[in-house]
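Researcher: Structure prediction, please.
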Amino acid sequence: MKLLSGHHVFSCEGRSPEQPGAPPRWIPAFAGKHVLLMLGLMFAAAAPLAAKDRLGVYQGWAAFRDPDTPRCYAISEPEETIRTPTRSAYISVGFWPDRKVTHQLYLRLSRDRSANSGVTLSAGGRRFRLKADSSAAWAADRRMDLAIVAAIRSATSLSIETIGRDGRSIVDAYALRGAPSAIDSAALGCAGLKR
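Model: Predicted structure follows.
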């Protein structure tokens, strides 16, 4: 199993991803099988750079708490990715109690996107145009974060679409079974948590 570390992490009120060197992310290098995801989540909890507390696994989603940062998040990998990915993609909803930030969306794309291509998230019949760099995307503001989380709660799937540097479509599709429970678990896991 491959664990990734030192990559972009959740964004904060500045609305851009934090720099490497902040607490790392992980996602199994493979995608698709929920059983494998659950194994990856169990091993990641034991990894020295992974989140310290696993709050729960909810079908294709999991929730974690890192009291050292402090932060909590719900996270999932795509159920399906169009074309071969160059990195492990994921979507997360983060909570940062010290910064009074809640329900913050962050996602990593499966491939680098074209600089002149927008990133669109579709869920529950709604479409959102996200802010992005070459490999990640996030909501434009708190209002959009909350609208996306509301759409996640009412939908069964979510897709991220953009155009890659090679001119080909990037589509990362996520199942949302378990997402509301994982998001709620992360929110409760950070309730009252401060340094």
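Model: The longest strand covers residues 101-108.
Researcher: Thanks, that helps.
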